[in-house]
Amino acid sequence: MNEHQTEPSLRDVARNAGASARYLADIQSVVEQINENLKTLRRETRIYCRNTHVKDDKWYHPRLRAIPVDRPLAAAIRHATALANSLEFASRRRRAHDDAVRALPDRRRERQLARDKKFKEAAALRSTPETPPVPTEEPSNEYTGPQSVWDIKRGEKSA
Question: Rounded to an integer, what distance in angstroms lies between the CA atom of residue 45 and that of residue 70?
Fold first, then answer.
């Protein structure tokens, strides 16, 4: 099949969250079947390689010879498992994206209402006339000395 022939159908799948989830689930099931086949292949290969004895072998020699065969299969199984998990994660994220996009207008409307309410309250507070504070006693015009440490000039000693 030509790459250009598959593009329109995959575009349709990408635009629909349900279709994306079904497509990813199909791929995930294929990957899990491949993973099971790899596990079976690994088990049978280990059994065969570990039971292959050569004359004058020590008991551990077949195991050592089986390691270079076993490690790549184990890595392939790990990668297949990670791929299946990533496909499931991508499906969940795709659905969450659509939910977030659907909820976005409501969230924006709520934020705008909250903003308008805040500005109306601030305008109401500005429109009320402030009463000047009533002095309780008359201020004296006498100098009483420094009121804080910052009022003391350099070189002067405090009391």
Answer: 8
CB 46 within 8 A of CB 70: yes
Domain membership of residue 24 (yes or no) is yes
Residue 148 placed within a domain: no
Number of domains in the chain: 1
**More confident site: 83 or 156:** 83
Digit-coded pLDDT (tens) for 53-106: 999 999 999 999 999 999 999 999 999 999 999 999 999 999 999 999 999 999
By 3-state DSSP, what share of the chain in percent is helix, strand and coil, each rounded to 5? 75, 0, 25
Q: Which range marks the domain in which residue 41 is found? A: 11-125
Tell me the CA end-to-end span of the chain in Å, nearest whole number: 96
Distance set, CA 110 to CA 102, 105, 118, 121, 122 (Å): 14, 9, 12, 17, 18
Helix (H, G, I), strand (E, B) or coil at 75: helix
Name the residue type at position 147: Q
Asked whether residue 145 is assigned to any structural domain, the reply reads: no
C-alpha to C-alpha distance for 94 and 16, rounded to whole angstroms: 9
Unique residue bearing structure tokens 């409501």 = 106
pTM for the structure as a whole: 0.63
Cα-to-chain-centroid distance, residue 18: 22
Residue 156 lies in a domain: no
